[in-house]
Amino acid sequence: MYDVNQKKEAGLDNKIQKQDSDFITEKIKQRPINKKKLLRRTLVTAAMAVLFSLVACLTFLILEPVISNWLYPEEEPTPVEFPAETEEILPEDMFADDTEMAEAEAELEPPKEVKLDDEQIAQLLDEVELDMDDYSAMYGLMADVAENVEKSLVTVTGSVSSLDWFNDPYESKDQTTGVIAAKLEKEILILVKYEKVIAAESIMVTFYNGEQVKAGLRKKDVNTGLAIISVPLEKLKKETSEILSPADFTASSGSRAIVGRPVIAVGSPTGSPNSVCYGVVTSSSLLGLTDSYYRVLGTDIYGSKHASGVLVNVKGQVLGIIDNTHNSDDMKNMISALGITELRKVIERMSNGKEQAYLGTHGMDVTLEANENLGVPFGAYITEIEMDSPAMLAGIQSGDVLTGMAGKEIYTYGDLVNMLNDKEPEEVVEVTLMRQGPDEYVQMDVSITLGILE
After folding, report:
1. Which of 231, 290, 247 is nearest to 416 (CA)?
2. Smallest Cα–Cα separation from 417: which of 352, 328, 331, 357?
């Protein structure tokens, strides 16, 4: 009986163990993967990552300059201002012209007039002996002046890449002479004809000692065809930076006429770099352009129609920037230059990166004869108005005389030009003008919004 019960219990235990082993050996099936849901989640995660990266980059770009300026504030560049003009001192200027000197001269006996006959004049001339050595020495001194001026000149090369008819790449280059207008703490500013560099893909500047550095365009002036390009000083070798100096600009007009005085053309007057020519100033005339006028200095120097460079006096002071584009048809090859006196404000404006305020007038001064005989009031006499210009939109007409702007009186057309040089585009100015009526000139006040000269 006992054995039977033990067998039953043993059989029951075996059955239970079998059930347990069957449970252990069961296969666990994995839950099926939803591929669409997984792909959607992956795309959402990637999109969020891209969006986060874009927001982070945008935030960095916006805040980085602000933080940098806060941590390392940059000093504002000093505005470029040229010193006051200096005119060449002539022998007659050496005498004082004050009241005391006038009174002293009045007390003296008037000088006796000395007359020399032809024989005496010939005798004086015979006493002056000049030979070829003197002639050579004179030109040697002028050559030294030109060499010293060349240290303030550079060769500017504009390069443009293109394809020829056979689809082969080539590079075209155009050269002109530039003059160093200013040397600042961090850069050198160079005045140059912009037609040679305006379409250039790269601008290369070659300095006096042969070093070449890339430059960037700062600002251009459509009236004169000139531009300012900039070269960072950090790109130049120390020895180059030390020998460079701005050109010495002097007066090209004023109380003393310069017609008949000797001059030197330096730069590329013959069309070739580093060429020099000697001559005299033969004419000085005014060139009227939009909202401006310039003095054109003519010479007897025969050169290239595409000449460039500067015209200097015998002291090496720059009188003008060579520009033959305004020559008459029968004087195409005679060297001419735009006078520095009228260019001074333009160079300052471009050097400081400012735009030219645009009114849209051509004009001239009112002469004393016109004022006395015709009753024309002194001011800027308007001879022509540009189409669709701010002046035309404000109702200004040819024949009007502008006598005031922004509370300041205008006596000459030059006063108007100088005032416009100090104004900004989009600035609103009040202009006073005189318009001829049936019996007399009538005053009118107009409000003008200045544009940009392009």
Report:
1. 290
2. 357
Q: Token pair for residue 267?
A: 């730069």
| Cβ contact 335:300 at 8 Å | no
Residue-level pLDDT at 33: 56
Tally: H helices and E strands in the chain: 10, 20
What is the rounded radius of gyration, in angstroms, for the C-alpha atoms of the chain? 40
Torsion of CA 347, 144, 130, 259, to 10 degrees: -10
| Both structure tokens of 182 | 């200013």
440's CB contacts (< 8 A; 6+ apart) are 375
- In a 13 Å sphere around the CA of 132, the CA atoms on its Cβ side amount to 0
Task: Give CA–CA dist 400/391, Å, rounded.
Answer: 11
413 CB burial (10 A radius; 0-12, 13-18, 19+): buried
Q: Which amino acid would we find at residue 411?
A: Y
CB 344 within 8 A of CB 82: yes
Hey, CA dihedral for 103, 108, 109, 110, is it positive or negative?
Answer: negative
Angle (nearest 5°) at CA 320 between 357 and 192: 65
Query: What string of DSSP letters covers 308-346?
Result: EEEEE-TTS-EEEEE--TT--GGGTTEEEEEEHHHHHHH
Cα–Cα dist 321/310, whole Å: 5
d(CA 226, CA 248): 18
CA 214, 191, 272, 140 torsion: positive or negative?
negative
Place of tokens 């000049």: 130
The answer to whether 416 touches 364, Cβ cutoff 8 Å, is no
287 and 295 Cβ atoms separated by less than 8 Å? yes
Q: Which two tokens stand for residue 164?
A: 């020829």
Residue 8 has pLDDT above 60, yes or no: no
Question: Long-range contacts: 99-102, Cβ < 8 Å, 24+?
Answer: none
Q: For 183-218, write each residue's pLDDT tens digit.
A: 888 899 999 998 877 777 788 899 988 899 999 889
For the chain, give the number of residues: 454
Q: Measured at the alpha carbon of residue 299, what is the angle toward residues 295 and 300, in degrees to the nearest 5?
A: 165
Residue with the two structure tokens 């505005």: 79
User: Would the pLDDT of 178 be above 80?
Assistant: yes
Residue 124 CA from chain centroid, whole number: 53
Cα angle 240, 245, 248 (rounded to 5 degrees) comes to 160
Cα separation, 310 vs 364, whole angstroms: 27
Name the range with the highest mean pLDDT among 5-9, 105-109, 158-162, 242-246.
242-246
Tokens representing residue 180 in the block: 């160093």
Question: In whole angstroms, what is the distance from residue 287 CA to residue 290 CA?
Answer: 10
Number of Cβ atoms within 10 Å of the Cβ of 274? 16
